[in-house]
Amino acid sequence: MRYHLLLIFLLFTVISFAQQELKGRIINNQTGQPLAYAKIQYQEKEALSKIDGSFSLTLTKDETELTFSYIGFETQNFTVSKDVEYIRVKLTPKIEGLTPITISSEKNKANSIIQKAIARKYQNDPEKRLSSYNFKNYNKFIIDNDASRLEMESDSTNFELSTVINSGASYFSEKVSRFYFSQKQGLKEEVLALKNTGFKEPVYEILSLSVNPFSLYHKDFRIFETDYAGPLQKSAFKNYDFKILDTTSTSRPAYVIYFKPKRQRAVAGLEGILYLDMQSFAIQQAKAQLLGAVKLEIDQEYQYFPKEKIWFPKSQETTIRPGNRGQSISVFGGMISSGTLQKKESILNSILAPGKTDPNLYLSITSTNFDIQLNSEEKLNTSAEIVVIPEANSRLKDFWQKNRTEALSNQNKITQKKAERLIKEKKIEEQINFKNSISSGYYPVGFWDFSLGKFFKFNNYEGIRLGFGGKTNKQVSNDFNINGYLVYGTKDEVFKYNLGTSIYLHKATETNFRFNYTRDIVETGSFNYLQGKNEFSIVEPRFVNINFFYEHRTLSSGFTHRFGSDFKTELQFSKSDIYQTKDYSFLLDGQEFSEYTLSEATFSFLWRPFATFLKTPNSTKLIEKGYPKFTGQITKGISGISGSDFDYTKFGLLVEHEIKRLNQSRTEIILEGNYATGEIPLTHLFHSLPNSPRRNGILRRFSVAGRRSFETMYYNEFFSDKQAMLHVKHQLRPINVHRLIQPELVFISRHAIGDISNPERHSIEFNSLKHGYHEFGIELQKILLGFGLGAAYRYGPYSLPSFDENFAFKFTFHLDI
């Protein structure tokens, strides 16, 4: 095999001698500024300069005549010999081209064309114009090192196979899909074939990348995890400047319109050109670039369908290379910057060898649509946006040869070999599995995944809570796990523990049977949703100051099941023996209960109708959160079963919504309602997530702010059997102090209202919320390493006599995982 590769390299070297690569830059002779998208004509071909004025041409003759032209500038012609490797072209402005153009002027021809293109979007955008369509797509994703290519093109006598195989970072994947679109369901993808070179198990994370936007007609579009303003949205003139560069002379002539961001600090935008059909003002072709910490290049081409009179996306290529300025592109949850990934855990942190700046690194994704069927009635009936069929990972060579829109080049094959070697030698697959465990709150050691949330905690009742917990992983079994924890409180000097199992009945629908026994403490008045909870948290701010718990010994069993992709449910049956840690008793029919037994049936659900999902043969993965999302729960306490003392019903509904804007500001709205009826003790009623210890002095109450807690409300101040809470947070655009220091100013408004029936049933005093509770807060988040500062003030009917009592000063902590 080694000698076969050497023959390939030798052949490529011979071919390369017949070619010349000419690089250069085109600038304004008077200002020295680069000329973006200047036209270059050579050897009956055309090319355009990039946004920094640079270009690279492959020439095949001993002497080549070049023509450089740019609107408003004098054209230049000259001849270069094969010995020339770099030229600097200076174009001189024409006298008539020196008059400045006012963008808002009606006389600006480019603006007039763009206005017509925006007005015709509904006729030209396939997702607006067509009722349905489907097409096949071939996608190729490469991460490689340009040094390998240079090495391969050099003198073969200095060539070392091992150097190429081991150099740099490599990744290679291919995918064949069929996309289906209808006005009712939107765009959905069925993955027919998937190949991740070097991996034993498929890397499904690759499928969740928003790399190639389907078209530039959208209001905004996503490349990796960064949103950019669309050049044909209604507010286009607010975000972009436009200029005519040229016209084409094809069978369907087009205007060549240059667009450039004008509010880059406030709204992310790309610089590029649109080829707009002179008749329909539809996009025929688009090129876009970004120069910053990375060099991003996008090339889109469209195909014309005469019968439907529409231009449809045909192909796209996206390339990323190292840059030199301050912008970044997010990939797999990580940031590509200066040729490598910044610190945010992701799959590519393993593949790209973080920490090593590699100026030769490049990432390339090519995507080609074929077998395009417009107004087709075929549909993909699924609630998931991406579905991987079971055969996708085992396609034979004939399938790939039939569905590739381009044959694999010699360089592709070399990259495949490099990827296989790299992934095996650096144990990339094991690293990915490890990081997936960490991100979900577990640290794998052999057959056991340790729970990171069980090692250390602190609260006023237990003191320091030390312990360990976790679950078995697939080294023990792919069909079940054994889970549990053991913790000890240094202040109450009591061990708490849990032991259970989960049996995986059907992985594709996440149908699991669970059985658990727990002996632990729970905060009085807390309401925990079985679904939608975040089981792993580095910091639990409220837990530190809680001092009112009850002890429980609970035996529970239940089922989880996912209906479709967006609706996950859990049904649980439990029996709990309750014991008090404080002097509290529940008074009912002349009898006091400080110890009692509760038998409950609970149904919980998480519904995410606006999220996007990836459905694989064995699981459903969340691609993009999407809002609003709904979490609900119904609990029925049944007296007389297994010695249960009380009969009651509890309801809870949590609605979370988030609005993200292109200027990086964000608004978060959380609405929650709780209701309980029947014979229900205080331990199982509701508080409103208070987060202020009852101490004199602002600094003595200093603590860490929570996400949806009331920062000025004292612990154990209010309890309710019916309540509603509203939290509104508005985060302004981050303040750009430094690349690593970008604090966020957040304004917060919180409100709660509630009441309680039969307060005389409870042996301790507390307030109701029937007059409404209000507080206002302000936070400066992420000042340094996720830490910030905040303050909140209580006002309204439940405000207290002094400023000190109404005011709360807080740490904030926000860490993205």
From TrEMBL:
Short name of any one Pfam family annotated for the protein: CarbopepD_reg_2
InterPro entries (alphabetical): CarboxyPept-like_regulatory, DUF5686
Protein name: CarboxypepD_reg-like domain-containing protein
Provenance organism: Salegentibacter holothuriorum
